[in-house]
Amino acid sequence: MSRSSSSTGSIIVAFALGAVAGAAVALLYAPMPGDETRRRLAETARQGRERAEAAAKRGGEIYRTQRQNLNDAIDRGVEAFHDARKDAL
Fold first, then answer.
1. Residue 4 pLDDT exceeds 70
2. How far apart are CA 36 and CA 44, in angstroms?
3. Is the distance from CB of 40 to CB of 32 less than 8 angstroms?
4. Where are the domains of the chain?
5. Contacts of 31 by beta carbon, 8 Å cutoff, 6+ apart
6. Are the CB atoms for 37 and 31 separated by under 8 Å?
């Protein structure tokens, strides 16, 4: 029994030392303080919003250009159809 108690005690001491060492390392390598983290999150969110706005603007420009190209192609197709119909009659 004493061997089992000694083993259990060693495990508990090792666990406690590991927890203390882990806490010390966590404090040494902890990320920025809360206010710095919030500032970085706000900056990242702002940059993301700006990129999304720019992408939406580019998307809108592409949409308008392609819509105009499609309308022009439809107009040319209708014109060609009418010309072909006139020639056939």
1. no
2. 12
3. yes
4. 1-30, 32-89
5. 37
6. yes
List, for residues 61-87, the tens digit of each pLDDT value. Answer: 999 999 999 999 999 999 999 999 888
Amino acid type, 10 = S
**SS3 letters for the chain?**
CHHHHHHHHHHHHHHHHHHHHHHHHHHHCCCCCHHHHHHHHHHHHHHHHHHHHHHHHHHHHHHHHHHHHHHHHHHHHHHHHHHHHHHHC
Q: Is the pLDDT of residue 37 over 80?
A: no
Position 17 scores a pLDDT of 81
